[in-house]
Hints:
Low-confidence stretches: 105-129
CATH topology of the domain at 6-113: Lysozyme
Shape: rod-shaped
Structural class: mainly alpha
CATH class of the domain at 6-113: Mainly Alpha
Distance between the termini: 111 Å
Mean pLDDT: 81
CATH architecture of the domain at 6-113: Orthogonal Bundle
Largest sheet: 3 strands, antiparallel
Amino acid sequence: xxxxxxxxxxxxxxxxxxxxxxxxxxxxxxxxxxxxxxxxxxxxxxxxxxxxxxxxxxxxxxxxxxxxxxxxxxxxxxxxxxxxxxxxxxxxxxxxxxxxxxxxxxxxxxxxxxxxxxxxxxxxxxxxxxxxxxxxxxxxxxxxxxxxxxxxxxxxxxxxxxxxxxxxxxxxxxxxxxxxxxxxxxxxxxxxxxxx
Length: 196
């Protein structure tokens, strides 16, 4: 039994004709399906058997094998080179997402990223992974800024602050009621103006 890492699975996918763009998703599916175990076997309730890294079902005939390279080629073929991972239950259920690395879009349909892969001049950021991740973080920052300039947001903030102040005043009053000191001290004598 050989157990492969996520990075090794990406390499196996690519070396067997798989599109490099979809290698992260393919590797995450293999991790979810087999845990990277090349000898993984699952007998289904219908009597069919899933074999290998990508758990290729025996209904696919000779494509269902424990041979690492043949199993990867079968995954490439069945997924139409990464454009349709729907035959894998772990893809449809989203179970593969816990293994996914590299900020690759992971939609329920076919992934939609661009195939450019060279390092850029911006600190080694690569497309699509790091660049897409950067812009999704920037969108979060912009959304927060837009929330702050919205007048309704300031009403919420003001209401929250007033609510906190009222709670603090109530706590102060309750602590003073239990003591002998008056809540508000008034002068003991009030001067009365005398008309001249």
